[in-house]
Specification:
It comes from Endobacter medicaginis. The chain is an all-alpha fold. The chain is 69% helix and 0% strand. The radius of gyration is 20 Å and the shape is rod-shaped.
């Protein structure tokens, strides 16, 4: 009998979910930091902002 693909599918879904959760967790402070940098005057900003 062939092994069920279900464990692989579940593992992939869990991995994708963890990546998405981590990305969102990091994205919020990153967006706040970017907003703070944009509030600075142009000469005070790091290059690229």
């Amino acid at each position: 009998m062939a092994a069920s693909p279900l464990p692989d599918v579940l593992e992939r879904i869990c991995a994708q979910t963890l990546v998405e959760v981590e990305r969102r967790r990091l994205d919020t402070p990153l967006k706040a930091l970017e907003a703070k940098l944009r509030e600075r005057s142009p000469e005070d900003r790091p290059r690229g902002f």
